[in-house]
Structure formats: structure tokens, C-alpha cells
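Hallway conversation turned thread

IA: we were arguing at lunch whether anyone had actually written out NAD(P)-dependent oxidoreductase end to end. Turns out nobody had. So, for the record, here is the sequence (480 residues) and right after it the C-alpha cells. Reply here if something looks off.
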Amino acid sequence: MSERMLKFVSRDRETPVKRNPGERRRDFGEIYAKFADEKAKAQAARCSQCGVPFCQDHCPLGNDIPDWLKLVAEDRLEEAYAVSSATNNMPEICGRICPQDRLCEGSCVIEQSGHGTVTIGSVEQYITETAWEKGWVKPVRPARELPQSVGIIGAGPAGLAAAEELRREGFQVKIYDRYDRTGGLLVYGIPNFKLDKTVVARRAQHLEKSGVQFVHNFDVGRDASLAELRADHDAVLVATGVYKARDLACPGAGNAGVVAALDYLTASNRKGLGDKVDAYDNGELDAQAKNVVVIGGGDTAMDCVRTAVRQGAKSVTCLYRRDRKNMPGSVRETANAEEEGVIFEWLAAPKAVRGDAAKAAGIRVARMELGSPDASGRRAPVEVEGGEFDLDADLVIKALGFEPEDHPEMFGAPELKVTARGTLRVDPETLETSIPGVYAAGDIVRGASLVVWAIVDGRKAAAAIAERLKATAETPIAAE
């Protein structure tokens, strides 16, 4: 083993330089700098190189984390990039937005022993950013071009990962997306302070240079039926994600000033991209000088509260019906929100939105306590009698999660089977749907989940599609 490793006993955990809260409240820039070279090597060298790498085991992609940490510590960065990118189609994105505290870093052996986890996510980001700077990220050039084509519906992480894998095999790939830019929620759902949009655009350009074709502003069901896409391609992958917002079930939920999280975040991101957004410009989706209450405890809720802070909200409060320990969102993101001045009301749930159809004028809140476990095994929140209180609220944002749209109806494909939850029913081994030759990946299969799981599914679907199409492959196209 290299003498450079096992430094966790003498070297403390460090993260890249983090901008102070007062500064970062004023803009949407990313809050962490890139690791300085020597800092990255020093932190990578803290890895214990344990025989059973729990970090790798708890990474959905199975990233070979100990190996690329060792390569970074030894200043073998190009090799580290080769290892990192072998299992992950967008490591610079996962390094920024994965909840490492719940995955690789949360399972790190030295974290469990009290020495503080290796900063895996930041090193992963450092490796790939260095690779982009050095020109090591090359467009995909398959050994041979195949005539068979695959149509992918959705330009989010699942679709993009599948597209790259299919191009490596030589298939012709075309992605259809309802938005005007590539990236899905990576562009319109996640704010710049977590993921700068230039990072997503760079990855999209890489795929274009690799031969992936993009068709934007294309709605399946409006511009073509699923059957028509099937006729145009040898296989189709549905990677649309889930976009239907869960509603607020209390009086006043339909009042003006009560908005869905994705509508709010999309408006903000579009403004950041320079678009004209009427609902933002007229103040409907702008938090400036407003008392904002965000309902929910996941990462989308954290995106909303931190966006409202940057828009100049008068106050920002997050209501979550369980306690901090049971919050589903990233611990790191919650801490960042608190640093930026967000107030958290734990064990609190909305009881009614005050005001009328024209205007929200506050929110009545029920105090909760945790009772017996529910069907999920988590202790169910129960209202505390007499514990009601009121909060000022001009803008109430519903960040309660997402559900699937009605794809059989939307796609004009009643034979497309769904589960009881409305997600697409697939073969668990191949991700093929009830329609032969049509596959599905990402949130539309597993429900609202993490970007890293979407990448996992995209790669898995691509492998199944490639195996099937290769079995019936025609004569390859001559390379130019």
C-alpha cells in the first residue's frame, strides 16, 4: 500500500473553501470552490483503503472510490478520471448534488470510527473538473457505427446516461424532450448555487459531439404518439421523470400565493438563464420582500427555501411534520439553509392557508408529535391538541414530492402498464415495459428519487437494449 494513504489519524477532514453565508445570500453562485490541488491530494490520502469498502458498497453506481482516492493522492489524476468515469456518466454532477452524507460518506469506515469521513464528493468533483480543464474528457467514438437507432424520451440524467452508453456501443441515438434545453430537472429544478447550469450545458455538448441528436420542445402525445416513435426506432426508452406535484390537503390550498415547488424553481432558474418569465416578473413567483413558508422536508424544499433567501424574502420558514432526525433531505443542505437564515419549524404541519382566492394572508399551523410507526416503519406524526399557531405568509410553496403523470393517456398507449403508484411497470432485470421494445428508466420507474439512481437505471436500460439489438444487428455502417 502506498505510504501516501491512511492519513486520517493525523489529518483532519476538510471541505473545499465555502463562501460565507452573508456573501452567498446575495447571488446564485455555487457556494463551494473547487479543491486546490494539494488539498485534494491531502484529503484523498485520508482514505483507509479498507478491505471491505463500504463507501463503494453504498454508492448506487458502485463507484470504485478507494482506487480513485489512492490515484489522486499519488497525483495520478488522469488515471483517477478514467476509473471514476468508468462507472459514472456525470461524476462532476454527482459530486455536487449527491447526498453523500446518506450514501458513500455516511458509510465511510473512518467516519464510523470518529475520525470524520473522507470528502468523497468534493474529490470526485475535483477529478472531473480537472479532466475537463486538461482535455481528458473526449467525445465518444464507437469502434463501429450500427444502423439501429434508439429513441429516448426525456433529456434528464437517466436519458443522458443511457444515450452515452448506447453511443459507446455504436447505436444511433435521438433524445426527445419537452423542454427547450437539455438536462430536465438538472437545469430547471436544481438551483445554480448547487449546480451551475454551465456544468450541465457542457455535458450536453459532450453528448452532441458524441453523436447524440436532441429534439427539444417535443411532447410525446402532442408531437408524436409513442407508436410513431416506435415505428421510427428499433427501441424506445422512456426516461421522463415524474413531474406531477402532490397537492396540499387543507383549507385555502387553492388560494393565490400557494404555488408548486417546481413552478417556483423553474421560474427562478429560467430568470437566471436570461428568459422572460411573466409569472416571475409580475411577482407571483418572486419571493422578494415576502414572508415565505415552504412545506416539506426533502431536498426540493431546501432548494426552495434557499432560493427564496436569494430572492430577498423578508422571512423564510420551512415546515416539516416530523423532527430533524427524520427529515428525508440532505443534512448538509439543511445546515446550509440554517446558515443562510432559514427558520425551521420541526413537528409542524399546515392546517389552513389564511386569506382568500386572491391572496394568501398567513398560515395556520398544527403542532405535531411522533406516534406509533406507520406502514413504512417510520413513526407517524400526530397532531397535538391545542398546539396550533399562526405564521405570516405571503407566499406558500408546496414541496411535498412528485408523482407520475398518466403516461398511457399522455402517450396514447393504453397498453402501457403502470403500477398502483402510477409508475411504469417494467421487467426488473431488463427494465422493459409491457410493450416489447419499449424500456423505462429513472423516476418514472422507481418514483421520485436521486439523480444517481436515475444514472444507474439509464445505464442498466442501455445495457439491456444493446444486448437485444446486438442479437439482431444488421451490417455496421462504414466509419467515416
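OS: looked through it. The longest helix spans residues 451-470.
IA: good, adding that to the notes. The chain has 19 helices and 16 strands.
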